[in-house]
Amino acid sequence: MNARDTVALFKLIAKEIEDNKTYLTELDTAIGDADHGINLSRGFGAVLPKLEGEFETVGEVFKTTAMTLISTVGGASGPLYGTFFLKMAGALGKAEIDLSDFVGALEIGIEGVKARGKAQKGEKTMLDVLIPVLDSLKNAATTGIPAKDAFDEALQAAKDGCEYTKTIIATKGRASYLGDRSLGHIDPGCMSSQLMVKAAAAFLGGKA
Amino acid sequence: MKKVINAPQNVVSEMLQGMVLAFPEYVRKIDSADVIVRAKPKTGKVALISGGGSGHEPSHAGFVGCGMLDAGVCGAVFTSPTPDAVFEAIKAVKTDEGVLLIIKNYTGDVMNFEMAMEMAEAEGIKVDKVVIDDDVAVQNSTWTVGRRGIAGTVLLHKIAGAKAETGASLADVKAVAEKVVANVRSMGMALTPCIIPEAGKPGFELAENEMEVGLGIHGEPGVRRDTIKPADAIVDELMAKIMADMPVDGQEVAVMVNGLGSTPLMELFIVNKRVNEILTGKGVKIYKTFVGEYMTAIEMAGFSISVLKLDAELKTLLDAQADTPAYKS
User: Fold this and answer.
1) Considering B182, B213, B231, which residue would you say is the last residue of a domain?
2) Is the Cβ–Cβ distance between B269 and B218 less than 8 Å?
């Protein structure tokens, strides 16, 4: 995957977020403050024109996306997704990356999210999707299957992660105030993360 | 949704333009971000910056002015401002004495303000923070991100603002701010939800005979739903929770009865009467009472009660002169 592909991927992610803006906001209405879809859609809407430039490396595309999200999203998702993509950018300073490059960057991005949000797996946050996705991709990278198949498996892990958040109580973020009233609901941050994996799987599928 | 707005995505910028036009002698907006600063900046003092999502008017920008804040950072509705907006505010009002950020304890606010702090520190700006978490409705345990910051924040603006105005050092202003945080407790309730303009529908539903006890100020659900009770019974419950967390027997306090947006003063005064009865019954001396809209949740019907335990220093600072669009003393 090169910089041009990465731009196309982020455009697909932006579309996926825009298409699901209302759904994400509805999930956030149930256990948060009803703005997740609105905020992410505003952020990715601002990212799109920034992707029109020329990029040498994959990391530059990630960095541009990250900085734009940090300065336009606000809330909790702005700093979290911003930090996530910014940390990944630092590990992707190449013109062309393969699956194992991506896996390494993803791991660093997840560490950034953990530090920024002071969160771990199992607290009903986006980490409950990102970490299973990482584990799935790591596994795929060692078996050497095509990236497209790897992302199809990762998407299943993401979906399972989303479903898993229905069964646990939030201990981080605004949903934590609800106690066991957060049970039965999907974490909105998990769903937006899943949508990004879905876009990646669709992108690689279309490319293959 | 029935609102007097133009386009939902323009509410914050149009509100700020209208606010500046209404109070040109007090405030202006900086060009680079949705940040309101004093029209007549004062140097030689610690600069105080507060902020958060919009929708809590007059908080926070309404308290920008002499004796209170130097800047208010206005995020999208119910959404923490971005790190660069906070950083723009810091750059706009920084002084040699330093900058103190007042942050309400929400995940997003804390992260965005902390990122702005890191940006400012990288440029050699002296900056510190205080996080307020006065809402006793939510448990401060390892299972939550801690208590939320609600209307007690306005009392913090007043007292820290007065301290900063005296020319006190950053450490001293922070110390008095932390004293307020340690001595203020609040709790609220709602009768109706509110509608974020861009969402277009309420964050939760309440039946005609229902109330939500312990909600925050963002339309997020509270901690318990119940059938509506008489005002006195509601106040008894909120005050019991506040006083269980912070005993005030025989002490001197300030009280704030805060409307959430569409609760008439009539009802707020009825609430205040009961608050007064309860406190007086416990031998508490009420030094000062505030009744009105200080920290709203757009058009939510409901109120919060805040109780601030006072000592001589806090009383002096509470009485000190303040002149802002939304607060004068």
Assistant:
1) B182
2) no
Give the architecture (CATH level 2) of A3-207.
Alpha Horseshoe (1.25)
Catalytic-labelled residue, pool B45, B104, B185, B218: B218
* B202 shares its domain with B308: yes
Nearest C-alpha in A relative to B111: A79
Check if B157 is active-site: no
CB contact under 8 A, A117 and B82: no
Mean pLDDT, all residues of chain A:
94
Q: Is residue B325 part of a domain?
A: no
What does B250-306 look like in DSSP terms, one character per residue? T-EEEEEEEE-BS--HHHHHHHHHHHHHHHHHTT-EEEEEEEE-SS--TTBEEEEEE
Catalytic residue among B38, B56, B148, B157: B56
Q: Note whether A76 contacts B107, CB cutoff 8 Å.
A: yes
B82 and A42 within 8 Å at the Cβ level: the answer is no
- State the pLDDT confidence band at B107, using cuts at 50, 70 and 90: confident
Contacts of B203 in chain A (CB under 8 A): 29, 33-34
Pair (B146, B259) in one structural domain: no
Which residues of B are less than 8 Å from A34 in CB distance? 78, 196, 199, 203, 219-220
- Give domain status of residue B326, yes or no: no
CB contact burial A26-53 (16+ within 10 A = b; e otherwise): bbbbbbbbbbbbbbbbbbbebbbeebee
Q: Residue B165: which domain range? A: 8-182
Interface test with B, best of A24, A27, A33, A36 (most B CBs within 10 A): A33
Q: What is the DSSP string of B110-157?
A: HHHHHHHHHHHHHTT--EEEEEE--BTTS--STTSS-PPP-THHHHHH
Q: Is B58 on the interface with A (CB under 8 A)?
A: no
A35 and B199 within 8 Å at the Cβ level: the answer is: yes
To the query of whether residue B60 is one of the catalytic residues in this protein, the response is: no
Contact A169 B221 (CB under 8 A): no
- A46 to chain B, any CB pair closer than 8 A? The answer is no
Question: What does the pLDDT look like over B26-74, one tens digit per residue?
Answer: 999 999 999 999 999 999 999 999 999 999 999 999 999 999 999 999 9
Whole-model pTM: value is 0.88
Do B157 and B215 fall within a single domain? no
> Same domain, yes or no, for B178 and B188?
no
Asked if ipTM goes beyond 0.85, one says no
